[in-house]
Amino acid sequence: MAEEKIAAIPHQSEQIYLGLLSAHQHPPTFFEYQQAQTNFSSQYFSPITALPVAQAPTEKRRVLNHFSQRLSNSSLPGAEHAVSYLQHKYRNNLATSTIRQSGGVIISFLSFLMLSGISSIEELSRQHIYAYIGNNQNRGLKVGGIKTNLQGIYAFLRFLVDHRILEPDILDKKIQLKLPELLPRAIPAEDLEALLVVVNNVRDQAMILLLLRTGMRIGELLNVKVSDIILPEQKILIYLGEKNYQGRVVHFTEDAERALRKWLKVRNTNGDYLFYGYANKKFSYAAARKALWI
């Protein structure tokens, strides 16, 4: 039955005309033909999706219909513009997940505006956006999630500005959220032991442990001279930082001290630098990277 319907669709104009001619025994009027064509379309096509009845809508279309229906059935401020915005994303062939994410964020934002007493989207101000961010924080959302929501809101506001529904100044000085800097993760002890097992060179073991235990940059470590090390106090003096140009003191642990003592016993005492390259010259950054694979 589905195949017959689909096959019949390309010849609908001829079928409608012949059907009317057979029923009325005279050429149909324009009104009769138009009415018959409307009845034919409603019989073979879904009024919601505008797709043939025999063809199920795609997941992307179902997602669009879901959020469009929720918005259309609500009294949220700007709901009709939100539907147009989602349809715009659909026409631009954006991913299903993008449309779903946008729909959820917009409904959440418009719901907050309605609870705040906003009856029209034209009443929106920067203070309402600030208040929405505060509401997200009070709900326990992480900064990354709030930042994603904010990006979705500003994309919607850009659409409203482009269609002259909102004034452009709503996009001036966008609210920026700074993600917290993540602390570096320590290497598990078992992984460090496995690493040192395969590093047989005494010099390389000392370099690895000093980098890990002091937090020095590789460039800072290569600038360290033997005279900068205070072994009894397990510390190294750095007279000039690579980035802030300020001196500081770093401390190392007992395992780094043991590795350092082993290296000091075998190193050539003619050079000033703790780690040196060819002809007792300063160890280059490229050579250190090659030796340590960092």
Main-sheet strand order equals 1-2-3
CATH topology of the largest domain: DNA polymerase, domain 1
Q: Indicate the percent of residues in helices.
A: 55-70%
The overall number of domains is 3
Instruction: Estimate the mean pLDDT confidence.
Output: 79
> Based on DSSP secondary structure assignment, what is the total number of beta strands?
3
The topology string of helices and strands comes to HHHHHHHHHHHEEEHH
How would you describe this structure to a colleague?
- With 294 residues, this protein is mainly alpha-helical.
- The protein has 3 domains: 2-44; 59-171, Orthogonal Bundle (DNA polymerase, domain 1), CATH 1.10.150; 189-292, Intergrase catalytic core (hpI Integrase, Chain A).
- 56% of the residues lie in helices and 3% in strands.
- It contains 13 helices and 3 strands, in the order H-H-H-H-H-H-H-H-H-H-H-E-E-E-H-H.
- It has helices at 2-8, 12-24, 30-44, 59-72, 79-91, 96-115, 126-138, 143-162, 189-198, 202-214, 218-222, 254-266, 285-292, and strands spanning 229-230, 235-238, 248-251.
- A 3-stranded antiparallel β-sheet has the order 1-2-3, with no helix packed on it.
- The longest helix has 20 residues, at 96-115.
